[in-house]
Amino acid sequence: MLITAITLVVLADAYFVITTLVDLHPLNNVTAATSNERRTEVLVNAPIMLLPAILLATAGELRLPWLGMIGSAIELVIALSGLALWWLPYVAGVTVPWATAGAGSSWKEMHARTYAHTVIILPRIGDRPRPNLEHMILHALVLAAAIIGFIATGQL
Description:
transmembrane helix; mainly alpha; membrane
């Protein structure tokens, strides 16, 4: 089960990198961001997203469950952050403070420019931004990795 958790973490990270850098329209809309913005997003977030896999692998190799718990906790924080960013505006109409850090626009404006023309399967709730399919897949991978990571670590 530890291999499954590690695989999910790596898969989520690879999926993030690909969907951030490669134009897969209508799944994503990378053309709405500059190449520098996309590169910066990958350089900042990809290593953080890969850290849980390293911690889980090390925990398994050295039989250190606490290290796996830390890796799983980091993965859970990543999942909860993504869910808060995307689902709070949709469900509750609340935008998290870091949603548009440094962008100079609101989340609603950024969503309209960047994500509104991608694949969205959720029904509208007023004029609230809706999570797109690209991010729903990413959130599912990260959340599954966190849950399986905790379960697998508990079995060490």
